[in-house]
Amino acid sequence: MSLNLDKIKQPIAQEMKVFEKEFRAAMSSKVPLLDRIMTYIVKRKGKQMRPMFVLLSAGITGGVNERTYRGASLVELMHTATLIHDDVVDDAFQRRGFFSVNALWKNKITVLVGDYLLSSGLLLSLNNDEFKMLKILSEAVKAMAEGELLQIEKARTLNTNEDVYFDIITKKTASLISSCCAIGAASNDPDEEVLDKMRVFGESVGIAFQIKDDLFDYGDGSDIGKPRGIDIQEKKLTLPLIYALQNVDEKEKKQMIKRIKGFKNKKKDLNAISQFVFDNGGISYSVEKMHSFKDKALQILEEFEPSEYRDSLSDMVRFTIERKK
Q1: What pTM was computed for the model?
Q2: How far is CA 138 from each of CA 19, 82, 224, rounded to the nearest angstrom?
Q3: At CB < 8 A and 24+ separation, what contacts does 141-144 make?
Q4: How far is CA 169 from CA 87, 183, 239, 273, in A?
Q5: pLDDT per residue as tens, the chain (325 positions)
Q6: DSSP 8-class letter at 38
Q7: Residue 94: what are its φ and ψ, rounded to 5°?
């Protein structure tokens, strides 16, 4: 059965419309320039998986309420702020196929827009006494920054091992999805056991999501003739390459690391590195790991009462590892 987000979204379709209105209201400004930029950002919305995780997690733990909408808006405000700042750091001129904010309005304005979104999220929480939600998300944003810096540090030396890799992606990617699920649950004031279950559920989904992203660098593991090689160009050692390097002798490992360090985006080098990963089990091992985290997430969901929310969350888990981009 083919999964798509519109079908998964059905149990919360009306709630998503309410969220979108509240999110737009939370980021509105009386400054014309700022409001134009906010409108541009809203029109470029992506898959909206994060607010979906918030709303569905609320549904499975008691139901969607006004606090849930605030939690989803908080997540989107803070996450959008980090993406905008990332585009400045990476000097990126496109996001999701559109011009990035900094491509259109330059870096100074873009940094200020990110600051505005960040402060809007803080005020949304503080004005409504949502201290628990703010704490959950603030811990995630802190972890995201740590994960990014750790990845940058390891890219300089290319000495990342599997433990460090999982530390990086847990902080950089999984922490945000984990916080979405925890915030959705927190909007219903559950006991700590339920909150922890949703945290671990989100973290497991986030790790599976990132492994899937890393597999895309090798043509999604299905077409070695068309590897993207973006991570290789940026000297990021992801799980497929880390595992392959662990399974060769020291001499071959040094040769491959030397080739990665000298990578010049030549098709020959890219194909050689990709072939090395395939030949030494990097793809199959990563797929196996991805499925183990998927299974862990699905097992947690089985502990909740059957509902359309639980069914959609199960489909969300499967979608993260079956998606094509």
Answers
A1: 0.91
A2: 21, 12, 40
A3: 141/78, 141/82, 143/170, 143/171, 143/172, 143/175, 144/82, 144/171, 144/172, 144/175, 144/176
A4: 19, 20, 10, 22
A5: 457 888 999 999 999 999 999 998 888 888 999 888 888 888 777 788 999 999 999 999 999 999 999 999 999 999 888 888 888 877 777 776 778 888 888 888 889 988 999 999 999 999 999 999 999 999 999 999 999 899 888 877 777 889 999 999 999 999 999 999 999 999 999 899 999 999 999 999 999 999 999 998 887 544 433 446 777 777 788 999 999 999 898 888 888 888 887 766 577 778 888 889 999 999 999 999 999 999 999 999 999 999 999 999 999 999 999 887 7
A6: H
A7: -140, 150
Fold of 5-322: Farnesyl Diphosphate Synthase (1.10.600)
Do the beta carbons of residue 227 and residue 268 sit within 8 Å?
no
